[in-house]
Amino acid sequence: MSDDSLVRQLYGEPTITERHRHRYEVNNMLLKPIEAAGLRVAGRSGDDQLVEIIEVPNHPWFVACQFHPEFTSTPRDGHLLFAGFVKAASEYQKRREVKSLNGNAPIRVHCLSGVLV
């Protein structure tokens, strides 16, 4: 994994092993346009041939993976990616609450079922 990636910080290891159950992959011929669009390859397969993890740099939480983190999760012990996502969401909510206390109105997002705050 890339040393400066979010997933590298989460795992705390340069190399990981995860479970796959498909044959989908990122087309390596499209890597330059993908990276030019702002995505960064954060992890590759052991043979360095396949993209395993993509991130958006400078985004609080944008991680896409080819493996299945749900396969190693339990209701009691969630996968590191899920725990990292929940932590990022919690930190985002705290920042919004601070803005609200400072007199700034909270951001409202409209959806089909109503208003999310």
TrEMBL record:
Its EC number is 6.3.4.2. Gene3D superfamilies: 3.40.50.880. Belongs to the CTP synthase family. One of its GO terms (biological process) is CTP biosynthetic process. Pfam families: GATase. GO terms for cellular component: cytosol. Keywords: ATP-binding, Glutamine amidotransferase, Hydrolase, Ligase, Nucleotide-binding, Pyrimidine biosynthesis. GO terms for molecular function: ATP binding; CTP synthase activity; hydrolase activity; identical protein binding. The keyword Ligase applies. It comes from Klebsiella pneumoniae. The lineage of its organism: Bacteria, Pseudomonadati, Pseudomonadota, Gammaproteobacteria, Enterobacterales. Pathway: Pyrimidine metabolism; CTP biosynthesis via de novo pathway; CTP from UDP: step 2/2. InterPro entries: Class_I_gatase-like (IPR029062), CTP_synthase (IPR004468), GATASE (IPR017926). Residues 10-87 form the Glutamine amidotransferase domain. This is CTP synthase (glutamine hydrolyzing). It is an enzyme of class 6 (ligase). It catalyses: UTP + L-glutamine + ATP + H2O = CTP + L-glutamate + ADP + phosphate + 2 H(+). It comes from the Bacteria.
